[in-house]
Amino acid sequence: MVDNRYATAIVIGSVLSLLATVYLSVAVGTQQWYQYCSPRVGGDWNASELQEEFLKGEFDEKTYSDTLFRLNGTMGLWWRCVQVPTDPHGYKEADPKMTKCVSFTLKQQFLPKYKEPGNHNSGEDLLRTYLWRCQFLLPLVSLGLVLLGGMIGLCGCVCRSFSPTLGVGVLHLLAGMCTLATVCCFLAGMDLLHRVSDLPKEGVDESFGWSLYLALISSPMHMMAAALLVWAARSHRQNYYRMTAYRVA
């Protein structure tokens, strides 16, 4: 028989886990992690050429970074988007509804980053390369850990066993840490990219997007779910041992 306190903790932890998983899934699938806002789209560059190169050109970090910066771009883990200007020369304000997005392919996610973006002769920047790879691998690991925890918890319910709860809590703790590490890797990678890129920053605002905040919120939610599950498992086990000892005595 499970005490009502432990059952309540498990229910609350399960709800937190579900919400955190939904938030993280939405964050991974959207592109609003980092955004640029330029008062005059395109500036002194031909916005149409920038757009064409961005959508149909070869994958190049410097090219798409410059375009994101000058065309009110947004960046995600799997997507990069720009606002298409209504004026071909880019002197009029862009319509936020006219947004074009291009996805990062799996191959592109593993491409090396260079000390000078766009210059393959400058040498590979190992720190930025591994930060980039971690930022898209870690959320997948996090979602996998939650899925594994859910399967173990379901098996425990079918078998009417409370024992797997502790393991499920540990998996949720690891998932929360992976999610937090994802946000840290993304922010560190963007900061390093801005340092090595020669981009004019006058009049351009940079800000975090709502997708990043969703991922940031999901991390403590997973950790709170882990704390509740671990507490319920340990407390139930201690209570069970005390009752067994009392009966034997």
Task: Describe, in short, the structure shown.
By secondary structure, the protein is of the alpha+beta class.
Walk me through what this model shows.
The protein is α+β, with helices and mostly antiparallel strands. It contains 7 helices and 5 strands, in the order H-E-H-H-E-E-E-H-H-H-E-H. The chain has a 5-stranded antiparallel β-sheet with strand order 4-3-2-1-5. It starts with a helix and ends with a helix. The model has no long low-confidence stretch (mean pLDDT 81).
Quick tags:
249 residues; alpha+beta; five-stranded antiparallel β-sheet; 62% helix
Mean pLDDT over the full residue set: 81
- Could you describe the largest sheet, including whether it forms a barrel? 5 strands, antiparallel
| Ends apart, CA distance between termini | 21 Å
The number of helical elements comes to 7
Report the structural category.
Answer: alpha+beta
Q: Oligomerization state of this entry?
A: single chain
Helix content: 55-70%
What is the strand tally? Answer: 5
* Sheet with most strands: strand arrangement: 4-3-2-1-5
Q: How do the helices and strands follow one another from N- to C-terminus?
A: HEHHEEEHHHEH
Rg calculated over all Cα atoms? 24 Å
Strand proportion: 5-15%
Unreliable stretches covering 5 or more consecutive residues: none
The outline comes out as elongated
Compile the SSE list and pairings.
Layout: H1 4-29, E1 34-37, H2 47-56, H3 61-70, E2 74-75, E3 79-83, E4 99-103, H4 106-109, H5 126-158, H6 164-196, E5 205-208, H7 210-248
Antiparallel strand pairs: 1-2, 1-5, 2-3, 3-4
Helix pairs in contact: 1-5, 1-7, 2-3, 5-6, 6-7
